[in-house]
Amino acid sequence: MRSGSDEGEWREDCAPRRVLDIFSTKWTSMILHTLQARHNGQARTGVLQRSVPGISKKMLVQTLREMEAAGLIGRHVESAVPPAVRYTLTPLGLRFVDLVELTYDWGRRNADALDDMQANLSSRQGDG
Length: 128
Prior knowledge:
Elements: H1 15-21, H2 26-39, E1 42-44, H3 45-51, H4 57-70, E2 73-78, E3 84-89, H5 91-109, H6 111-127
Antiparallel strand pairs: 1-3, 2-3
Helix pairs in contact: 2-5
């Protein structure tokens, strides 16, 4: 597999497909955004869970583990009783935050288009 192959080939490892992998789960982008926008790049587990509505504890832990393995966040265990775990954006994670913010900003500016798309999908589902 060639890392970053030409997107014209649409190989599994081409850059556009690897970028879209970030958004294959909504939680990764939401956690990146939340860490940066609401918590200045770092937060404890419980704070993150309260900051991301709808995420279960299991999904949060799973997503944080995947993000840590990818190098997007760092995990720091603080010596306290009970131990506190703090997650921090890494320099790599900060690079991806820019992409997330561009996408979220586009969504805010084009909410009407998203509403139209949802209405179209809902009306088609009603036709079945």
